[in-house]
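Input structure tokens:
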């Protein structure tokens, strides 16, 4: 199992987020503003670095896609009144995943 400090350092180094901004209850998407391809790249890197199985992790439950990649999606996102509700993936869950060797 990785320590909380190790996981926070990994998040900070991988996503270029100041360590002081990362709390146990910080959500990657909601609080740290990680989404789309950046989130996917992070989850894959986390999985490889800590040898965590992500085969049952449903990415779309936690993160959206790259809205900027498609101009139509960008316009829809601007004018749409409600945004999708994504589950929170908190730092404490990533620490737990290093112990369980699985992220779901």
């Amino acid at each position: 199992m990785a320590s909380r400090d190790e996981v926070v350092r990994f998040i900070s180094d991988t996503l270029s987020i100041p360590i002081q901004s990362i709390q146990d209850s910080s959500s990657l998407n909601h609080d740290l503003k990680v989404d789309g391809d950046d989130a996917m790249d992070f989850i894959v890197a986390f999985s490889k670095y800590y040898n965590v199985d992500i085969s049952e992790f449903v990415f779309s439950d936690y993160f959206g896609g790259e809205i900027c990649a498609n101009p139509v999606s960008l316009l829809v996102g601007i004018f749409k009144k409600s945004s999708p509700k994504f589950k929170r993936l908190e730092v404490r869950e990533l620490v737990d995943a290093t112990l369980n060797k699985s992220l779901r």
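The two ends are 17 Å apart (CA to CA). Residues 36-50 form the longest helix (15 residues).
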